[in-house]
Amino acid sequence: MRVAAVQFAAGEDVTANLATCLRMIDAASAAGAELIVLPEFCNHLSWYPDRETARLRACTLDGGFLRAVAARAARHGAYVKLNVTVAREDGRTTVTSLLYGPDGSLLGQADKLTLMGAEGDHMDPGTERGPVIDTPLGRIGLYACMEGVTSDVCRDLTLRGAQLLLNSLNSFATDEASLHIPVRAAENKVWVVAANKVGPLLPEALTPAIAERLGVPPEQVHGAGESQIVAPDGTVVAKGPRTGEAVVVADIDLSLADVKTRPDGTDILAVRRPSLYRPIASPPVERTAPPGAAECRVAVVADADPLPGTAEAAAAGAELIVLPELAFGAADRAEVAGLLAKALSGTPAYAVTSVRDGDAHAGLVVSAQGEAGVQLQLHRTGRHPWAVRLGEEVAVLELPFGRLAVVVGDDAVTVETFRLAAIADADVVAVPRSSGEAWETSLGLPERSAENRLNIVSAWTEGGLVLDLTGDFTLWTAWEGPFTGRISHPVVTEAGPGLTTGTVRPAQAVNRFVSKNTDLVNGRAWRALGALTETAP
Predict the structure, then answer these.
(1) Would you state the pLDDT for residue 209?
(2) Is-above-0.90 flag for pTM?
(3) What is the CATH number for 372?
(4) Rounded distance between C-alpha atoms, residue 274 and residue 286, angstroms
């Protein structure tokens, strides 16, 4: 089928905004689209002076704005997804995604569960998860903007059978297009169609003052565009421009979203362990651990003989050194611990790799004094069929530079693993692994850092990544440097073969507020994430 993501600007004139919506639906239909996705806040700018105005400008489900959209869907015989504010009969004003069918009927609606910044001042979050809508085209899930900045909502929709996820955005962040949108397709092996705004996102007269409060240049408080259609392997098959209206179209095969296996035959959903994920769907608990160190020197050693590089890194002052998984081949746990302890002798450094420990794949943390911690792999994997004894939690070690978690091997592919590390208040995560599929490195690890506020140091045979949490993160506070358009993306250092050094900032993991009232970890929509902890039938 042919799908379209359309991007455009919407201002404070509701009548003009409706006209734009209808015009863009017409344009997408003329391009042959059977399903059309519009941006978030199609009816009005997301900014309001007070709750009363927000409610006054909101749509009603039987009002003229949505009746016109429904009629236009019926005229073209197309599915249309859009997002507007809705005045509910119970007094709430919600940010709601709606899907209209080719006969103009409302097929499903989903209230936004996680509001961004000032949205929470004037609107109300959703109280229950949105539906997965079974249509002749396929099974469709709806989400909006901030719900896609973390993994929870899209994972929940996927577990309930969605093949196609439709995202409406109202964002000036450029890392939406470069990271948050495509990773949701790849990590769940589903299709994603995402439509973002262009043009001003704030009232023109108020933009300078609001931009100053946000710590963002006024000219960059515009929708970031780059609406896109993403395949289940993370490939962006069509993308719009950074600025200006656009209709982005592609022909897609939804059956590709039914294949959930990695190249080694591992089914990414079948290996999940829902009982381990209960903390994600439980009430958040505030952190009590103090912040970690302001900086921590780290190293990646990707070498067939890792001991010389480990010794060199430790002698040069590295506090955390990460090696690939099974870096010492068939050597047993005690032997590996002894070899690494000798390489670290006389230094305060810690080294991390993994070993085969009988019928378990174990992450091993070693200091000059010997073994300092062990983390068993949590999920089965086709690459290591012998690893059948699994861990029961993500453990966190208290080390001089901060709180360290270890994610072992293919546990890095399961999004919930890092979520658990963040909930356990880890500051740094060491990831000894193999190289895996391309998306796992280019999108997966950076997203695990961004959405959970975790510093990550990962190594595999050919190289590695050092993902450092920038201090320029929280909107509504002054930034240390110029605003680049990227909000949550970590600073990336790519490691090649041999020894690579870098720096991470454990103390930055404490700050999880991406904007006013919006905590990436404790602000998760835990009440609506039941599918994460349910065992598949």
Answers:
(1) 86
(2) yes
(3) 3.60.110.10
(4) 23
